[in-house]
């Protein structure tokens, strides 16, 4: 049975548990669990990380821990009872763990490894703490170490700063906000600006001496030297090196390492140096032989110097290699370091080129204890301490030191009867009072232990040696008296024996008889002569002799004679001994009472360090004198006491204050002193007002704190001794003293007067007295003293400095112990508030004001239950009443001030702001309901309340600013927000009561809403971005404050009523921002407000356009910032749709919601795509989708233009220069050539519209040039040139023409790669919205083939699955929750057929037209229908042809465009055969032409082609076709295919004819080595002819230009017979009856142009004639030159003139119609600059290009007539023609004379759509004649396709206005406008297709923006007649219907050139972008 647990509440998982049992809870090792119930070895509970999932787990897997349970019962929470540091460590390490792994993922290796080490270190320390075996001090150190590491890691990972007190985290609810702020600030400062250390230490580690000429042991001495004062600052550090130059005792690190301690900040100067002296121990001369002398001498070796300042900049870890210098003469040795410092090069040189001393030097900062903690290894390993000479800057009490330093300076010696100078060595001994040598008390320096003696350097042959060697004598204090130092002088002989002969000695006693030590300074000692064997053991004998020349008796002639002297310098550093006689006199005052007066007077002259040495003795002396003779010496003792007290104020001695405090508490015994002290103090105070000199009085008042301490302690001692006698007398004395003080304080003086300065001095020290007074007086009495004293100050104070001091006094008062007592607070608070209010109102001394306020508020605390004590409540009330308003004003004032410049000032400024803010928050947090009610009732008028509300809302907005607190102060921000929301809830009631209905105030409400919105949007409240543990902590403590504020907004909004209209549309953006916060509850609350807004806007203006516009504008900016998600889109849609169900305006509401939802879809896709790193198709496609949406659906011009530029940047980055140009054209076409000024926008400066358009043109041309799309660039160059010409800007015109010429050159000279095109289908719901279940055609990159493209797409969509078939997917794929990609190559169907079919046009030019401006693409899939004949597969080989029509032509603004229409046609085996042979014929013909015109460098392609065709034909290829289609069975079964069979036969004959001609050409050019092959081909060709049964070519073949007039096929390029013009694969669009006879197709006059064109589109679409070069191998097994069946990508070609354009004058070749078409079809207007005439705009369908034949400029007119049936004029296209001639059989007809031109012809003014001009006829006739080929005759009866078929011309409206095909196309023409088509003879045509039997398929009315430089021509092509009708007619084609509008005439000359007198037509005015 499961029992609820009593004690087992909390545990940690010891081992992982899979939870495989029923109701099992899976556990991982380390998880913490809360236990609810137990049962027989099992627990039931949950993991604290996921409390929603409960289960059971074995109890053996859990380690139980003590825990404290809150809210026992169902909703209990468990808090582990453990050290708070452990708890924090555990949770922090968990958070770090997840982030640590992310560091690895992000490749931040350095931080990853550092954090790993720190985490391991923390875990190790955690174990130590948990074991619990640490001492208290060690535990403290470990915790400090842990918290330091935790803080470091949090800072590195950008986590929050943790407020701590004594290593434990602080709960912000348990301390006041001001205290919290101070803790945070303290930690922040500690982190940011570590306090500059006042003490510094130099670490030195000697590594080695590197030198070539070693071989002797060395001694190295380091010391710090002051170059400015030329004196050493420290004692010496001494290291011994062996003969190799390495330390002699490597195992003892303290002998190689030292710490030069206690360097002051003033010592880190450039002229302070580390000086190194190196001494060798060995022979006298460095080069002497070893056997000469065995005695060792200390001899100079070298010196090195380095400046301490260099160590401040150098890397501390680096070793330093110091150069070692030697002096040129030994006599200079004592000053070699000075010479090196002064760079006196002549006196020293390098001791060796490679001699150097390797040393590690490092400066450390902080006090020595801190270093011991931070550099434990240093101290545990061993390091010697090298002290300063003298005391450090700060002397610590208890410091014991007794060091005497003696420097051997110089000597003067006589020759002593020798011819050369002596080699003098000094030996130093220290002897005690008994004459015994003190062992180990002579030290050469730190590092090595002290010795019994010291041997000086030996300077060679020098009678005036200067050693400058410092030695240290650490003699104990008790041994000083009677000790002396002896110096023995010996001559060191360099002869064989090497003896050292004693010749004299000196000595010096260490202490004088009166107890003073040897004074510091230089002493000239007497050298006493002696012999070698003199015994100096008898000390008393020589001690009687004089030791110094200064104290020689005047009559001692014997010693005056010798001139020998020895100089030493002594320096004592002792905490116990003194050299000062005055000090000793004072301490021994009882021995000499008569000297007391002198001694007290001289006390002020004694050095402070001497006084503090004997502080207690001195104080005892002073009070002893006072007790014995107070009348006589009272004033002097008082002054001496004041001097000593003020001495301790000095920073050097401030650490001795505790010594004095201890003295007062424990040693002071002057029970009667208080009377004298009070008396003297009052005497001084009474004299203040009258005294002239205030200096001494000010000194007295400075010491008042300690004087009061002595007074109080003395009185307490007296009370204890006497049982409290004279109490009243004492109180009276104190009262009188305070009356005197109040009197002098009440004096009004100028700030410069001495009395004012004395008042300031007193106020500074006064607060320190409170604590002493409290020891005797009650709290109320002391508070009364303070109140009266502070109140006595004059109110109108002139002295600013006194005001500041007064404020500082109040600050100290508030911080004092006195103020903490509530009783005293009641008395003092009014005084404090009065002063504070006055200062804050005048904005003076704000730093101190903030300090006072902080201290006051940190004392006010609510009780546990949330209620305040009555006293506290009163205090809060008082503070609110007097300070809340002024506090708000102050915060506003300082927040709006400009920040000061200096960093220190800025820090102070931020501190003040932060402190005032903390004070405000603390005050608001203390306020209860009652306080708020009193506050709001206190306002006398509505205006005052309004100002207060505006003020507090503004301040709250300032508090929410991100810069208010540091980034990592989340704790502080949460407290701030909690206070704000609480206050706002109180104030919103006031807002409702006072500012609604007739009292409505927009400003207050607006301020309220604005505050609420920015409150919700704060980063620190976005819980979703936090770790789960942090989120849980915040929710437990504060809840989700966003939801609370959201509910409050909704509630307030509902209260507004009709006033809501004031906030529409202003609040739409802010509220939208709130709803985008990813908090479901908040969204549910806030989204309905939009419905309300729509409703009120509908009531006001009948629509909600404003709401829509604002929503759309804000959505873009907000979503691009990363706000919003898919859930929001769905929620927005569902909530609002539900809300508007019952509204009358439901329809328009649904429309708005749908639009906004669709925009969100696109914006979300756009944002997701933009997150990716590289520029890829997804980003570009997404941007295009969004750009379209803004233009077509939202008509948002500015957003549209912004996204144009975003798209341009993407293309440019991806180096898609052509697409970038097309993109920029979208903006270019919105601009006119006008002088209208445009504002600065994006990266464009302020400029005129003309200048911006010019700049855009030039940029676009440059990009077209980069993208090798030169033809498009030429058009823009021309337009720009026209502009320059119209402004007579010939300089730029010239440049533009040159640029245009250079583009033509590039077309001819540079190679262009031919891109491949791929169809891509994106299927499945996982794709972004703009791709989902759509198919696109993509233009591949250069050199990109199918495999590479597939790989690229799969890389872009790594989760996509590639489909392996080309069939259309079914619905399961469409609806799948996955991504499927279907990719295959497609073939482009070019639009510009005329250029491609012209012979002689270079391939460089043709390549452009093959692959640019492509709308349609084709994909062929061969399949067998019915039974497959194994013998002849052609019988059943069908081709399924898919034609894809895009929404835009490629290339355009994207590399891919969506497929708009998909047409599926099945091509029958017969049609397939016709197509194959047509394509092969065309290929042959092209190769022959190229060969003939010598365009081919090599004849091999022609050879291979001829070989392939002839070989296949001979081996049964054509025969297979004959077997399949020419047999009776087929003809009987397919009577409808008669014409097609005839066509196939003709094509076969045609092929044979072309082959014959090709062989003739081949023979002409074939090289000699290929002659045999040629002969073989000729033989095979004859076989082929015979197999086809051809003896002689039929008449129609002979009549056609197969014989190539003039012997060249090139000259007959316009006369290719129908049999060579392949078409027919398009004939069976819906498998209806054959529809080749297109003459009858459009015989029904009821068809309008539009309908006719659409039928044409269905039944006869033509493809490129040059597609044969892209043929892929056929799947067919036949041998017919691999072309028997259409391969998947083979396309058929169209009639050669299917896209021919009218011949125009050169100038107008590239002009455009300024058409406003449906956005899909409209041309980019920048490419087509000239507008059309109104007449031309009228009927865009009337002009056809498919019916225009082309002329051949190489033939004269009669020649042209000869091979062609007729010569047509240009106008024959437009005129109605007589019916066809009855004689169809005639081969040649006389040419029809040209008719007079039709005056209304629009063709005269027609601009060609093709950028490459057609050939111009050399004839001078008014209309150039054209020579059609027989194939062109078929199209004469067709209603022609206009280049601008699908839209009307511009009518001046904005380029962004919407227009559809139906609106733009004009009305359909009435039937009567079509002349009847002449019918061919009966029997020759199959059933015609009329409009009634074939419903034309209309294009959907979609309106995306224009992308193509060229206007899209409708892909509707005429179907050619079969060959049976191909005899050229003698009639003109029928005329087009006349235009409905009056046509303008005379605008163009007949020859197509402009009339110079006619002005250039300007573009019609239209709405142009303002950008």
Task: List descriptors.
extended, 1971 residues, 6-stranded antiparallel β-sheet, 6-stranded antiparallel barrel
Reported for the largest beta sheet, the result is: 6 strands, antiparallel
Total number of helical segments? 64
Return the structural class. Answer: alpha+beta
Low-pLDDT stretches: 1598-1971
Q: What sort of overall outline do the alpha carbons produce when their principal axes are compared?
A: extended
End-to-end separation in angstroms reads 79 Å
Strand content: 5-15%
What share of the residues lie within helices? 40-55%
* Strand count: 40
**Mean pLDDT over the full residue set:** 76
Radius of gyration: 55 Å
Descriptive report:
The chain is 42% helix and 13% strand. The strands form ten sheets. Strands 1, 2, 3, 4, 5 and 6 form a six-stranded antiparallel β-sheet that branches. The model is unreliable at 1598-1971 (pLDDT under 50). The chain has 64 helices and 40 strands. The protein has 1971 residues and is of the alpha+beta class. The radius of gyration is 55 Å and the shape is extended. Helix 17 packs antiparallel against helix 19 (704-722), helix 32 packs parallel to helix 35 (1041-1056) and helix 41 runs antiparallel to helix 42.
Compile the SSE list and pairings:
Elements: E1 3-4, E2 10-13, E3 32-39, E4 42-47, E5 50-58, E6 62-64, E7 67-70, E8 77-80, H1 84-105, H2 109-131, H3 136-156, E9 164-165, E10 168-169, H4 177-192, E11 199-210, E12 217-226, E13 231-232, E14 237-241, E15 257-264, E16 272-282, E17 297-307, H5 308-313, E18 319-323, E19 325-327, H6 336-342, E20 348-350, E21 356-365, H7 368-374, H8 376-381, E22 384-386, E23 402-412, E24 424-431, E25 454-455, E26 466-473, E27 484-492, E28 500-509, E29 521-526, E30 528-529, H9 539-543, H10 557-560, E31 565-574, H11 581-587, H12 596-602, H13 608-613, H14 615-628, H15 630-647, H16 657-667, H17 673-687, H18 695-702, H19 704-722, H20 727-745, H21 754-765, H22 770-774, H23 779-791, H24 800-815, H25 817-820, H26 822-841, H27 846-858, H28 870-896, H29 903-926, H30 929-937, H31 942-960, H32 970-994, H33 1002-1016, H34 1028-1038, H35 1041-1056, H36 1068-1075, H37 1080-1086, H38 1088-1101, H39 1105-1120, H40 1126-1139, H41 1146-1170, H42 1177-1193, H43 1197-1213, H44 1217-1228, E32 1237-1238, E33 1247-1248, H45 1249-1266, H46 1270-1286, H47 1290-1309, ...
Parallel strand pairs: 15-22, 36-37
Antiparallel strand pairs: 1-3, 2-3, 2-6, 3-4, 4-5, 7-8, 9-10, 11-15, 11-21, 12-13, 12-14, 12-16, 16-17, 18-21, 19-20, 23-26, 23-31, 24-25, 24-27, 27-28, 28-30, 29-31, 32-33, 34-35, 34-37, 35-40, 37-38, 38-39, 39-40
């Amino acid at each position: 049975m499961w029992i609820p647990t009593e004690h087992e509440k909390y545990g940690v998982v010891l081992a992982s548990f899979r939870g495989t049992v029923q109701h099992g809870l899976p556990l991982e090792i380390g998880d913490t669990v809360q236990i609810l119930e137990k049962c027989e070895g099992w627990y039931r509970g949950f993991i604290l990380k996921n409390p929603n999932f409960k289960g059971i787990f074995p109890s053996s897997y859990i380690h139980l821990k003590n825990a404290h349970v809150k809210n026992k019962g169902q909703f209990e929470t468990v808090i582990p009872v453990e050290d708070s540091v452990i708890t924090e460590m555990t949770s922090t390490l968990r958070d770090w763990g997840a982030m640590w792994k992310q560091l690895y993922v992000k490749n931040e290796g350095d931080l990853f490894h550092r954090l790993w080490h720190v985490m391991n270190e923390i875990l190790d320390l955690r174990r130590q703490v948990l074991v619990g075996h640490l001492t208290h001090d060690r535990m403290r150190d470990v915790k400090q170490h842990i918290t330091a590491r935790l803080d470091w890691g949090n800072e590195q990972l950008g986590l929050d700063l943790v407020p701590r007190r004594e290593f434990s985290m602080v709960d912000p609810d348990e301390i006041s906000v001001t205290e919290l702020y101070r803790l945070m600030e303290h930690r922040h400062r500690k982190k940011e600006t570590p306090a500059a250390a006042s003490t510094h230490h130099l670490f030195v580690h000697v590594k080695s001496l590197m030198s070539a000429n070693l071989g002797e042991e060395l001694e190295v001495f380091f010391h710090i030297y002051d170059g400015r004062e030329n004196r050493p600052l420290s004692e010496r550090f001494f290291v011994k090196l062996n003969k190799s130059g390495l330390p002699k005792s490597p195992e003892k690190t303290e002998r190689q390492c030292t710490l030069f301690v206690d360097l002051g900040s003033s010592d880190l100067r450039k002229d302070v140096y580390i000086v190194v002296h190196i001494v060798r121990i060995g022979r006298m001369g460095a080069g002497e032989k070893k056997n000469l002398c065995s005695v060792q001498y200390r001899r100079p070796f070298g010196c090195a110097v380095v400046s301490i300042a260099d160590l401040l900049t150098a890397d501390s870890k680096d070793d330093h290699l110091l150069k070692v210098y030697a002096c040129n003469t030994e006599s200079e040795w004592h000053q070699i370091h000075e010479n090196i410092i002064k760079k006196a090069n002549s006196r020293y040189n390098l001791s060796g080129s490679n001699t150097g001393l390797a040393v590690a030097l490092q400066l450390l900062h902080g006090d020595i204890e801190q270093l011991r903690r931070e550099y434990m290894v240093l101290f545990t390993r061993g390091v010697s301490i090298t002290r300063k000479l003298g005391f450090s800057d700060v002397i610590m009490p208890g410091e014991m030191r007794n060091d005497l330093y003696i420097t051997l300076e110089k000597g003067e010696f006589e020759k002593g009867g020798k011819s050369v100078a002596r080699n003098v060595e000094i030996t130093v001994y220290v002897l005690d009072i008994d004459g015994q040598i003190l062992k180990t008390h002579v030290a050469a320096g730190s590092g090595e232990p002290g010795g019994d003696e010291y041997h000086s350097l030996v300077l060679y042959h020098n009678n005036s040696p200067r050693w400058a060697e410092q030695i240290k004598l650490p003699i104990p204090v008790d041994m000083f008296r009677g000790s002396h130092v002896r110096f023995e002088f010996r001559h060191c002989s360099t002869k064989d024996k090497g003896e050292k002969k004693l010749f004299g000695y000196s000595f010096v006693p260490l202490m004088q008889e009166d107890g003073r030590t040897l004074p510091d300074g230089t002493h000239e000692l007497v050298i006493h002569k002696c012999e070698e064997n003199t015994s100096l053991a008898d000390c008393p004998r020589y001690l009687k002799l004089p030791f110094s020349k200064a104290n020689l008796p005047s009559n001692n002639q014997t010693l005056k004679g010798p001139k020998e002297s020895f100089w030493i310098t002594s320096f004592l550093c002792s905490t116990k001994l003194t050299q000062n006689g005055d000090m000793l006199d004072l301490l021994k005052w009882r021995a000499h009472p008569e000297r007391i007066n002198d001694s007290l007077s001289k006390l002020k002259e004694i050095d402070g360090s001497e006084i503090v040495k004997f502080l207690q003795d001195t104080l005892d002396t002073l009070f002893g004198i006072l007790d014995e003779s107070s009348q006589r010496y009272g004033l002097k003792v008082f002054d001496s006491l004041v001097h000593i007290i003020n001495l301790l104020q000095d920073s050097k001695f401030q650490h001795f204050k505790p010594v004095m405090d201890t003295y007062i508490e424990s040693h002071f015994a002057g029970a009667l002193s208080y009377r004298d002290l009070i008396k003297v103090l009052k005497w001084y105070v009474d004299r203040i007002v009258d005294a002239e000199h205030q200096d001494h009085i000010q000194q007295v008042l400075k010491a008042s704190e300690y004087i009061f301490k002595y007074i109080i302690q003395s009185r307490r001692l007296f009370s204890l001794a006497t049982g409290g006698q004279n109490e009243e007398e004492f109180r009276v004395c104190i009262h009188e003293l305070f009356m005197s003080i109040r009197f002098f304080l009440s004096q009004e003086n100028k700030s410069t007067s001495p009395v004012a300065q004395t008042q300031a001095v007193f106020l500074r020290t006064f607060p320190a007295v409170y604590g002493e007074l409290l020891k005797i007086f009650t709290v109320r009495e002391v508070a009364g003293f303070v109140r009266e004293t502070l109140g006595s100050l004059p109110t109108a104070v002139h002295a600013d400095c006194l005001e500041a001091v007064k404020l500082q006094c109040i600050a100290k008062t508030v911080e004092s112990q006195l103020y903490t007592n509530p009783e005293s607070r009641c008395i003092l608070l009014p005084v404090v508030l009065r002063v504070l209010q006055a200062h804050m109102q005048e904005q003076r001394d704000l730093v101190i004001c903030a300090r006072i306020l902080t201290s006051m508020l940190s004392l006010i605390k609510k009780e546990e239950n949330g209620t305040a004590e009555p006293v506290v409540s009163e205090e809060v009330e008082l503070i609110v009443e007097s300070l809340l308003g002024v506090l708000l004003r102050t915060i506003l004032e300082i927040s709006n001030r400009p920040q000061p410049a200096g960093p220190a000032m800025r820090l102070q400024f931020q501190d003040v702001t932060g402190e005032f803010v903390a004070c405000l928050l603390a005050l608001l947090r203390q306020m209860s309901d009652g306080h708020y009610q009193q506050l709001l009732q206190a306002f006398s008028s509505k205006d005052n309340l309004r100002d207060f509300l505006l003020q507090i809302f503004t301040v709250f907005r300032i508090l929410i600013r991100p810069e208010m607190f540091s980034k990592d102060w989340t704790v502080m921000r949460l407290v701030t927000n909690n206070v704000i929301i609480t206050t706002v809830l109180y104030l919103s009631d006031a807002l409702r009561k006072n500012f609604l209905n007739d009292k409505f105030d927009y400003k207050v409400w607006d301020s309220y809403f604005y505050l609420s919105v920015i409150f919700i949007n704060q980063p620190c409240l976005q819980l979703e971005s936090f770790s789960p543990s942090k989120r849980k902590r915040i929710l437990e403590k504060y809840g989700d404050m966003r939801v609370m504020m959201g509910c409050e907004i909704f509630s307030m909004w509902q209260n507004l009523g009709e006033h809501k209209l004031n906030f529409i549309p202003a609040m739409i953006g802010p509220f939208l921002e709130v709803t985008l916060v990813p908090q479901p509850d908040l969204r549910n609350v806030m989204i309905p407000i939009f419905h309300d807004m729509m409703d009120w806007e509908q009531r006001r203006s009948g629509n909600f356009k404003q709401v829509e516009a604002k929503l759309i504008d804000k959505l873009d900016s907000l979503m691009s910032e990363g706000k919003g998600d898919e859930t929001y889109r769905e929620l927005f849609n569902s909530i609002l749709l539900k809300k508007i169900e019952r509204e009358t305006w439901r329809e328009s509401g649904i429309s708005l919601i749908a639009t906004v939802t669709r925009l969100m879809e696109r914006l979300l896709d756009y944002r997701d795509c933009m997150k990716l790193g590289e520029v890829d198709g997804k980003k570009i496609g997404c941007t295009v989708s969004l750009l379209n949406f803004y233009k077509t659906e939202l008509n948002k011009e500015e957003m549209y233009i912004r996204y144009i530029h975003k798209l341009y940047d993407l293309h440019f980055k991806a180096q898609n220069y052509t697409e970038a140009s097309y993109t920029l054209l979208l903006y270019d076409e919105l601009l006119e050539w006008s002088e209208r000024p445009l504002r600065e926008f994006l990266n464009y400066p302020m400029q005129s519209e003309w200048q911006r358009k010019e700049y855009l043109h030039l940029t676009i041309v440059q990009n077209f040039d980069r993208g090798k799309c030169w033809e498009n660039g030429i058009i823009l160059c021309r337009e720009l040139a026209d502009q320059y010409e119209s402004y007579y800007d010939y300089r730029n015109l010239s440049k533009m023409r040159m640029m245009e010429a250079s583009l033509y050159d590039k077309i001819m000279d540079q190679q262009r790669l031919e891109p491949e095109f791929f169809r891509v289908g994106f299927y499945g719901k996982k794709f972004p919205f703009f791709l989902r279940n759509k198919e696109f055609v993509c233009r591949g990159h250069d050199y990109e083939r199918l495999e590479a493209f597939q790989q690229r797409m799969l890389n872009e969509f790594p989760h996509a699955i590639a489909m392996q078939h080309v069939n259309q997917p079914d619905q399961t794929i469409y609806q799948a929750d996955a991504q499927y990609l279907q990719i295959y190559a497609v073939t482009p169907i070019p639009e510009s057929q005329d250029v491609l079919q012209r012979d002689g046009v270079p391939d460089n030019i043709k390549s452009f037209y093959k692959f640019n401006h492509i709308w349609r693409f084709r994909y062929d899939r061969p399949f067998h229908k019915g039974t497959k004949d194994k013998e002849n597969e052609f019988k059943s080989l069908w081709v399924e042809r898919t034609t894809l029509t895009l929404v835009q032509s490629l290339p355009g603004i994207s590399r891919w465009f969506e497929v708009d229409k998909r047409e599926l046609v099945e091509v029958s085996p017969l049609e397939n055969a016709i197509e194959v042979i047509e394509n092969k014929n065309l290929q042959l013909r092209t190769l022959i032409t190229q060969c003939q015109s010598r365009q081919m460098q090599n004849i091999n392609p022609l050879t291979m082609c001829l070989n392939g065709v002839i070989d296949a034909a001979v081996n049964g290829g054509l025969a297979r076709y004959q077997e399949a289609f020419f047999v009776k069975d087929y003809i009987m079964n397919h009577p409808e295919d008669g014409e097609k069979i005839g066509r196939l036969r003709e094509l076969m004959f045609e092929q044979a004819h072309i082959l014959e001609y090709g062989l003739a050409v081949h023979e002409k050019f074939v090289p000699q080595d290929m002659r045999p092959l040629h002969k073989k081909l000729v033989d095979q060709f004859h076989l082929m002819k015979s197999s086809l049964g051809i003896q002689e070519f039929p008449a129609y073949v002979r009549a056609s230009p197969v014989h190539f007039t003039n012997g060249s096929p090139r000259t007959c390029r316009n006369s290719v017979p129908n049999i060579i013009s392949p078409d027919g694969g398009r004939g069976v669009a819906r498998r209806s009856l054959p529809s080749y006879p297109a003459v009858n197709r459009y015989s029904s006059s009821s068809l309008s142009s539009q309908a006719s064109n659409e039928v044409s589109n269905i039944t006869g679409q033509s493809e490129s004639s040059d597609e044969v070069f892209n043929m892929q191998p056929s799947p067919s097994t036949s041998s017919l030159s691999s072309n028997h069946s259409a391969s998947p990508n083979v396309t058929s070609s169209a009639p050669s003139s299917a896209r021919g354009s009218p011949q125009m004058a050169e100038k107008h070749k590239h002009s455009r119609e300024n058409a406003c078409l449906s956005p899909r079809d409209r041309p980019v207007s920048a490419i087509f600059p000239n507008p059309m005439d109104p007449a031309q705009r009228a009927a865009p369908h009337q002009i056809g290009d498919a019916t225009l034949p082309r002329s051949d400029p190489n033939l004269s007119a009669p020649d042209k007539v000869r091979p062609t049936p007729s010569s047509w004029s240009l106008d024959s296209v437009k005129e109605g023609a007589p019916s066809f001639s009855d004689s169809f059989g005639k081969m040649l007809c006389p040419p029809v004379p040209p008719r007079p031109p039709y005056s209304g012809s629009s063709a005269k003014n027609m601009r060609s759509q093709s950028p490459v001009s057609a050939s111009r006829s050399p004839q001078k006739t008014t209309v150039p004649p054209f020579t059609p080929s027989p194939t062109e005759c078929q199209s004469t009866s067709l209603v022609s396709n206009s280049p601008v078929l699908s839209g009307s011309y511009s009518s001046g409206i904005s380029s962004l206005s919407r227009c559809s095909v139906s609106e733009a196309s004009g009305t359909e023409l009435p039937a009567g406008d079509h002349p009847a088509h002449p019918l061919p003879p009966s029997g020759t045509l199959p059933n015609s297709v009329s409009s009634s039997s074939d419903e034309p398929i209309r294009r959907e009315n979609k309106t995306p923006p224009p992308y193509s430089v060229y206007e899209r021509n409708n892909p509707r092509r005429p179907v050619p007649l079969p060959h049976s009708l191909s005899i050229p007619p003698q009639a003109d084609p029928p005329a087009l219907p006349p235009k409905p509008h009056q046509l303008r005439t005379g605008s163009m000359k007949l020859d197509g050139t402009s009339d110079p007198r006619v002005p250039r037509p300007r573009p019609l005015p239209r709405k142009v972008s303002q950008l």
